[in-house]
Write a structure and sequence with these properties.
Layout: E1 4-8, H1 11-25, E2 30-35, H2 53-59, H3 63-69, E3 73-75, E4 77-81, E5 89-93, E6 99-100, E7 103-104, H4 105-112, H5 119-123, H6 126-131, E8 167-169, H7 172-185, E9 189-192, E10 195-200, E11 206-211, E12 215-218, E13 221-224, H8 231-236, E14 241-243, E15 252-259, E16 270-275, E17 278-284, E18 288-295, H9 302-313, E19 323-326, E20 330-332, E21 336-337, E22 340-342, E23 348-349, H10 357-370, H11 379-406, H12 413-420, H13 425-434, H14 453-463, H15 480-499, H16 503-510
Parallel strand pairs: 1-2, 1-13, 2-9, 4-16, 13-22
Antiparallel strand pairs: 3-8, 4-5, 6-7, 10-11, 11-12, 14-20, 15-18, 15-19, 16-17, 17-18, 20-23, 21-22
Helix pairs in contact: 1-7, 1-10, 10-11, 11-14
């Protein structure tokens, strides 16, 4: 049997992996995590998918306990600012479109909606909550969508049946520290030491890692959580990395942590604001904002990007220390090679747009548990794992390329090239289809990748790929039910805006 796992590298990826394996297998698996004090964490990755709740529920962690300890905030969606032209914005929310007589409200909007007003304001409740900066929870803790509240227990991403209405913003370093304390209490061996060498056996598999102060750490299965370095998967095993620079050229970021000590309000969403040579994230935490500029150094220098970011952030950015990051965009050709699995940045990263970094970590951990080997090392388990990880990354890559391909900005060399740059043939076919009618489950990327058809349609419609008419079939259906649903949605949104506390007010109540 496989009885011992050695994780090299801490941070969010390492500690999410260690704690999940302990929760899944208990004392039947010995888990050792070794991390160096000399390695600087990237310290971003502060926004998540709504599906991250499966992870915390699997560990038995209550939001009201861990969220305040991690400077946490709520994320109801992403606000895309200036992607079409200055001053315009739209939301990609965590909300499925309602269906009336077999067609989504977005389909009905094409027939009945006010085209002078953004579709997201007419088809989603969440947009009203975002504009009003509302918390998804009432004072006292109840969720506005009460039927979706409560723990999911030991469920996984692909078991999700309902769309949960929010995700989280949090301090990634604080989450790693919280999970480290949780993991150590439950039997994870935590070794703080420098890894000097990675030694292989006669098969070329990893035999042990040699540390400065703790000698050799041996295990059956090794997990590489060393970030972009890929110490085990790339440097030792020589697995080839496949770059996505041809379709996603952003390779640098500069990040600032901006205090917000006196603020009495905060946004319940991530902002993605188009800049001259990329885009800027704004992630509101309880006492500060995380901001950063994701860009391609082909179009702008690091100093120029930092200056543009500080100017965009305005007051509060003057004294903030800049963290410049080189990003490796793409994935390894195998996430699992021999007895080594790469998780997090060591395996893949498809730039920060849409907050997929922690999602990739969570999905990889769940698939590792599902495909966990025994002493026979069945190669089919490894092949199946690699194929699933390949598909999830490819789906996200295609979805992110859509953002740039469909964006209507053409005012700088960067944005002009974004329109002209090559794209996967499958995406071009989907975009051509989307100009005629909305996409559905059969016409988006066909394998699980975390995004549903409402996400694809929200981005297409928000960026300006709008079919000229509704599907012809709708014109043969009486519109009364759809009109009533539009009215009901607006009434529900107005009631919730009036009843819910502000995001800051609720978070302040659980941070006391």
């Amino acid at each position: 049997m496989i009885s011992s796992v050695v994780i090299v590298g801490g941070g969010t990826a390492g500690w999410m992996t260690a704690t999940y394996l302990k929760a899944a297998f208990g004392d039947r698996i010995q888990v050792t995590l070794v991390e160096s004090e000399q390695v600087t964490r990237i310290g971003v990755g502060e926004a998540t998918f709504s599906t991250v709740r499966h992870f915390f529920d699997f560990l038995g962690l209550d939001e009201a306990d861990w969220l305040p300890k991690c400077a946490g905030g709520y994320k109801l969606g992403i606000r895309f600012q200036n992607w079409s032209k200055p001053g315009e914005h739209f939301y990609h929310p965590f909300e499925r479109l309602r269906v009336v007589d077999g067609f989504s409200l977005a389909d009905w909007w094409l027939e009945l909606g006010d085209r002078s007003q953004p579709f997201d304001r007419q088809c989603f409740i969440t947009t009203a909550l975002c504009d009003a900066k509302r918390s998804p929870r009432m004072l006292g803790g109840s969720l506005f969508a009460s039927g979706l509240d409560g723990s999911l227990g030991r469920s996984t991403l692909q078991e999700q049946r309902d769309q949960f209405p929010y995700a989280y913003h949090f301090d990634a370093d604080a989450v790693a520290q919280y999970l480290a304390e949780y993991g150590v209490k439950r039997g994870v061996r935590h070794v703080v030491d420098d890894v000097l060498a990675v030694e292989q056996d006669e098969r070329g598999w990893i035999d042990h890692v040699r540390t400065r102060g703790h000698g050799d750490l041996r295990g059956d299965l090794f997990i590489d959580c060393t970030g972009f370095r890929g110490m085990l998967i790339n440097q030792t095993l020589g697995v080839e990395f496949e770059s996505f620079a041809d379709v996603l050229p952003n390779n640098r970021a500069v990040a600032l942590r901006v205090p917000r000590e006196e603020a009495t309000e905060m946004d319940p969403y991530t902002s993605a604001t188009a800049m001259s040579s990329g885009w800027m994230w704004t992630i509101p935490l309880f006492r500060r904002n995380g901001t950063g500029y994701v860009y391609s150094d082909e179009y702008i220098s690091a100093d120029e990007a930092e200056a543009e970011l500080r100017a965009a952030v305005g007051p509060g950015a003057e004294d903030a220390e800049a963290n410049h990051i080189r990003m490796r965009i793409g994935r390894n050709k195998q996430g699992w090679s021999g007895n080594c699995v790469a998780i997090g940045l060591a395996y893949a990263f498809v730039e920060p747009l849409e907050s997929t970094g922690i999602f990739f970590i969570q999905y990889a951990i769940e698939q590792l548990v599902r495909h966990f080997p025994d002493e026979n090392w069945d190669p089919q388990l490894r092949l199946d794992y690699n194929e699933r990880m390949h598909r999830v990354v490819e789906g996200v890559r295609e979805f992110l390329v859509l953002h740039y391909k469909a964006a209507r900005r053409e005012d700088t060399p960067y944005w002009k090239e974004a329109k002209a740059r090559k794209a996967p043939d499958s995406l071009l076919q989907r975009l051509e289809m989307a100009s005629s009618h909305l996409l559905d489950d059969e016409t988006i990327f066909p394998f699980y990748h975390g995004f549903e058809n409402y996400s694809w349609n929200a981005m297409n419609l928000g960026l300006g790929i709008i079919p000229p008419t509704s599907r012809p079939a709708i014109r043969h259906i009486a519109p009364d039910n759809a009109k009533r649903e539009f009215a009901r949605l607006k009434a529900e949104a107005d009631e919730l805006v009036a009843a819910l506390p502000s995001c800051y007010e609720y978070l302040a109540s659980i941070n006391d």
